[in-house]
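Kindly inspect this today.
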Amino acid sequence: MERIKCRLGLANGLIVPYVGRKGGLAMLWAREVDLEIKSYSQNHIDAVISDTERNFKWRLTGGDDRIYLRLDRAFANLEWCEKFGDMRVHHLPDSTSDHCAFLVSASVTQRQSRAKRFHFEAMWVKNAECKSIIKNSWGMDSDLGTLEGVMANLNRCAAELLKWSSNVFGQIPKKIQTKRIELNSLTLQDKDGALSTKINSLRKEINDLLDDEEIYWGQRAKAH
């Protein structure tokens, strides 16, 4: 949940911890939102939001009291829809849960795209190939004695690292989900322990990916 909080850049939140392998709820909100928690339990969180611009208060309640039923939907009455016609509910799938988190936010107007700033990912240094990528791409056909040459090297090195990262790491949450499905399938097939070596190897791969994911979002949390 902390990863989702960092990913969305939300400052405030109430997290109800899970018990054993069941339950667990969270409500996160931006710093500028006037939200008051009224009550909470293992099965629900109830809050009131005050909107001073519209001179309107509304109730936000979330929960799950049927663990066998997935209701990944949001409901609102007509009065709320009329006052907040620009609001949308977005599903945020996460590799650590079979439920989706909800993001309630205003419709985002399309903005002109701009180039993303390059970030050196801390998780790259865990891979021995990272050093080779930098070594092979640095100093190629560029004069390091000039500012233009140094900038050309930096840009080329960044491009090579991003291309390498895309091939090696790819979409980490999707990889985690795919490997968890594979692990579940192998576990069900392993009646006599013959697949234990493969299962343990797959578990290690998943744990390594989870570590990479934690490093990835931890680095972005520090940046904010």
